[in-house]
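the two lines:
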Amino acid sequence: DADVTQTPRNRITKTGKRIMLECSQTKGHDRMYWYRQDPGLGLRLIYYSFDVKDINKGEISDGYSVSRQAQAKFSLSLESAIPNQTALYFCATSKNNQPQHFGDGTRLSIL
Amino acid sequence: KNEVEQSPQNLTAQEGEFITINCSYSVGISALHWLQQHPGGGIVSLFMLSSGKKKHGRLIATINIQEKHSSLHITASHPRDSAVYICAVEAGNQFYFGTGTSLTVIP
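prediction for all of em together
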C-alpha cells in the first residue's frame, strides 16, 4: 500500500461544482502539504499544515480551502470550481527537516 | 518572478554520458531539494541538502550557499534516468519549485 494516498486519482467536473480531494498517510508525519502542478509553471504550494490545529496559506490559496481532520488526513476543497483550477494536484508529507513524500497525484479537469 | 530557475529546460543525452542540471535561486533558504518525476506523474525525493555535497548511487548533488546555486549530476546515464528533474527550495515555511528539466537518455 502507498504511504501517501490521494483520492480520487482522476476527476472531471463542471464549473461551479464543489470538489474535495482527499489525502491520507500512514507515515506518521506531522507535516502535510497540497500543491498544484501546471505545464510550464512547476509545482506551487496551496496550503500546508504542521499539525492538526495548524493551517497555513501557501503561494496560491485563493479559491481553495483545507481541513486537517486528523494527523493522517488532509483534504483540499474547491468550493466553486472554475476552469483555471484544472491541474494536477499533489499531496505531500514530511517530518521536520526531512524530505517530502508525495502522493501519486490527482488529475482534475473542470469543464 | 521566479524564485527558482533551472537549466537546461530540456536535455537529451546518449547512454553513458555525464549529465549536469543546474539550479539557481534568489531567496534565502533553509534547504534545497532535488526531485524526480517520471512520465506517470509520480514524484520522488532524491536529495535534501543545505550545504556541501551528497551522493546516492550514480547521482550527486552539490550546493553553494554563497552563490545560491545547486547542481545535480548523473554519472554513467541510463535510459531509466529519463524523467523530469525538479529543484525546490525551502524558504521559511514556503516551498518554491523550478519548472523542471526534462531529461531523455537514448540507448
